[in-house]
C-alpha cells in the first residue's frame, strides 16, 4: 500500500505536491491507473487512482473516503525537553507517531542543553512516520516554549503528570490515569527537572509519576510514557 500525505485535499480530485509526485513516479514507478492511498492528517483516509502525470505533478481521482479512520477514544499530549542530540528527539517522534500520539510540545527547562529546534524538520519526521504506519491523523508538533509558560496553559486538564527521578512520593500511570481522557505528560531534559520545576508543576495540578526503577534517557522515558498511556487506554 502506497500512502501519500495530502492535508489540503478537498472534493474528488487532487494534485500531489512536487515532492510527493516525484516520490510517486520516480521512486515507486507508479503509472496512470495505479491505485494509491491518501491521508489528510485529520482522519480522512482516501483511495484514489492516478489520472494524469506530468514532469512535476501527479493528479488523482478519489475513489472512496473513510472519515475518522483510526480515531482513538483519548488524547495523548507529551511535552519533552528536546535532546542535545536532536536525532534522539526525532527517533522519539517517529516511534511515538507509529504507536499513537496526538500532540508533542518542546519545553525548555533550566537544565536543557538545547534551547531551540527546527520545527519544519520535526514535522517531516512525523509526516514520514504517519505514512509509514498508515495513520489518518497527523500529530501536532509545538515549537519551543519555556517550562514556566507551558505548565500555566493547562489548568483545564484533569490527567496531567510530571515524570522525574528525584526520591519523592510518586504514583504511576497505571494507578492514576483515567481512560478516555486527555492526558498530558511532562518529560525532562538529560539532567532531569530541577526541584523547583517539579514543585512548580505540582503546584499547578500535575501529579508526580514514576516510569520504573531504571533511569531512562529523555527520549526513552517519553516513549515509555507514550506506550503505557496507549496500553492503558485499550
From TrEMBL:
Q: Which GO terms describe its biological process?
A: methylation
EC number in record: 2.1.1.193
Q: Which GO terms describe its molecular function?
A: methyltransferase activity
Q: Which residues form the Ribosomal RNA small subunit methyltransferase E PUA-like domain?
A: 16-62
List localization entries: Cytoplasm
Q: Domain Ribosomal RNA small subunit methyltransferase E methyltransferase spans what residues? A: 72-226
InterPro entries, per this entry? Alpha/beta_knot_MTases (IPR029028), PUA-like_sf (IPR015947), RsmE (IPR006700), RsmE_MTase_dom (IPR046886), RsmE_PUA-like (IPR046887), tRNA_m1G_MTases_N (IPR029026)
Which chemical reaction does it catalyze? Answer: uridine(1498) in 16S rRNA + S-adenosyl-L-methionine = N(3)-methyluridine(1498) in 16S rRNA + S-adenosyl-L-homocysteine + H(+)
Q: Which UniProt keywords apply?
A: Cytoplasm, Methyltransferase, rRNA processing, S-adenosyl-L-methionine, Transferase
Please give the start and end residues of each transmembrane region: none
Name of the top EC class for this enzyme: transferase
Per the entry, what this protein does is:
Specifically methylates the N3 position of the uracil ring of uridine 1498 (m3U1498) in 16S rRNA. Acts on the fully assembled 30S ribosomal subunit.
- What family does this belong to? Belongs to the RNA methyltransferase RsmE family.
Protein name as annotated:
Ribosomal RNA small subunit methyltransferase E
